[in-house]
Design brief:
By secondary structure, the chain is of the alpha/beta class. The chain has 8 helices and 10 strands. The chain has a 4-stranded parallel β-sheet. A two-stranded antiparallel ribbon has the order 3-6. The protein has a two-stranded antiparallel ribbon with strand order 7-8. Helix 2 crosses helix 5. The termini are far apart. 29% of the residues are buried.
Length: 291
Amino acid sequence: MNKESMLSGPSEDALAYASWIKKDERFKDILVQVSSPVQRHAFPRLKLRYKPSLVQMEGGVSHLPLVDSSMRATPLTPSEWREKLSNSDKDVVLLDVRNGYEWDIGHFNGAQRPNVDCFRSTTFGLSESEDVASDPLANVDKENTEILMYCTGGIRCDVYSTILRQKGYKNLYTLKGGISHYLECEGPVEWIGNLFVFDSRLSLPPSSVKHDSTNDENTVFAKCYICGSQVSELRHRNCANLDCNLLFLCCSSCMNDLRGCCTLKCTSADRLRPVLPGHERYKKWHHYRDT
């Protein structure tokens, strides 16, 4: 079973909590990662939930050899990962094991966009077809090709590596601690854009993780979901249609024309929320229903 804790609070209190946790023999080797909130408390409510697994896959994960270290990929430290990426002499495939919308605001240079918007449906290396366009692992040499897998915190790619190992891929590597740990240690070297996070912040620039870092290639790749034009702000918004709620990137023109919706059809939906300014996030439906 995987264990993950995400908390926010005053710096002194948060670090004291992390120090107390690491005194427990079971958690002494855990990686503690720290990032600053953009505007306010990132997690204003404490929620504790038991989950058999943090990672969900089609067909479940209970049958996977997750506790067998020989079946998982070899973890690389951020410096080792950076060295691998800079070594172009070898046959290497860089695999982004996240949701497609996460790639849309930031990814490692050379990584192909995931072909799904829900990780549990990922099929890299699993398709029977030889469709190179949608699967970067199609036709690769399973014995000799080095496959470098990464995700936000390192858990998803660790799980997925056991699936690829069962499929016969020999040279599997993961980024220890994930993207957030890499940016903290190495800065945005080989990285383009921002980091998608699953809380109210949604998007973290590398400078929020490593304060002395800059990234001049920040937005040259990001496109509006609706019109395809380049967007300057690497931050998703939810469709104003509550029953759609799609996370998407949007230029200011399309946001105004479609009133915060992702399609023209959504603008006529029954449960339509107002366009939100700036970095605000939608509240529960009753806030808008009762006004």
